[in-house]
Amino acid sequence: MKTFASICLLSLIVTGCSPDAALTEPIATSASAYGKKASAGPSNAANDKDYTGIIYYRILDAYYALPPDSRTLEDIISTGESLAFQDAGFLALTDLPLYQPLSVPDLEPYTTAQVQDIKILLSEEYGSRARNVFETITLELASLKNSDASYDEVYSYLVGVEQEVIEDALIPEVQASAILVTSSLLRYGMHHDKKRKRRDRDWDWMTTSIAATANAALESDAQAIVVSFATDVYQD
């Protein structure tokens, strides 16, 4: 896996792909989610990390367009990395050189975790304010799930949280950025469209997947995207 990533990074350098290149195209603003009509799309222009969600959305669509295959964690990681390194936006991420190829032991603590308290699963690098944000997100999303909420409701909630984080000067910049990445990935990951015929979203995955993604987001946008993909798809 490390060899694969190294080859891709070398290809990026050789082809001269600019880290400042345009990363994304807007996602359509209509969808059906959880059996109810949703009018709001997954994008949020106020979140300057929203490009991570758009890249993730494309990777998910590419994955669910593939024929059904092995669902082992190792194979999902391998497929996710392969699809990510074929995405122009992913290759244009400025922090791509920080990406560390994933292995099963990296993610097993999350996929096998019995505890659902996200504060225990989160990195110790997060301060109390950031931890409280993540705890609130997981509790509210669970409540929305139990009430059979529409995607519009989920979207509005997450966008509201993001705005609060953007305005909260007491959350350190690195931690605030990681929260915005994680929330963007959540918004796009939970957005259904008819392309994903095999995707049956069960929100039970979210506490451990959010923790894994949040921890990876402290390392790089690239790391967060692939970790979110692997933990999400594996527990889908």
What is Rg? 17 Å
Provide the spatial order of strands within the biggest beta sheet: 1-2
Coarse shape: globular
Which whole number gives the mean pLDDT? 82
Largest sheet: 2 strands, antiparallel
Q: Which percent band covers the strand fraction?
A: under 5%
Strand count? 2
Instruction: Please mark out the parts with pLDDT under 50 across 5 or more consecutive residues, or reply none.
Output: 1-22, 26-40
- Class by SSE composition: mainly alpha
User: With helices defined by DSSP (H or I, 4 residues minimum), what is the helix count?
Assistant: 11
Binned, the helix content reads: 55-70%
What is the helix/strand order? HEEHHHHHHHHHH
Our measurement of the CA-to-CA distance between the termini, rounded to an integer number of angstroms, reads 23 Å
Q: What number of domains? A: 1
List keywords for this structure.
236 residues; mainly alpha; two-stranded antiparallel sheet; 11 helices; 58% helix; 3% strand; globular
How would you characterize this protein structure?
The chain is mainly alpha-helical and 236 residues long. The chain has one domain. The protein is built from eleven helices and two strands. The chain has helices spanning 2-15, 50-64, 73-84, 88-91, 104-111, 118-121, 128-146, 151-167, 173-189, 206-217, 221-234, and strands at residues 31-33, 36-38. The chain has a two-stranded antiparallel sheet. β1 and β2 (36-38) form a beta hairpin. The protein starts with a helix and ends with a helix.
How do the strands and helices of this protein lay out in sequence?
Blueprint lengths: L1 H14 L15 E3 L2 E3 L11 H15 L8 H12 L3 H4 L12 H8 L6 H4 L6 H19 L4 H17 L5 H17 L16 H12 L3 H14 L2
Antiparallel strand pairs: 1-2
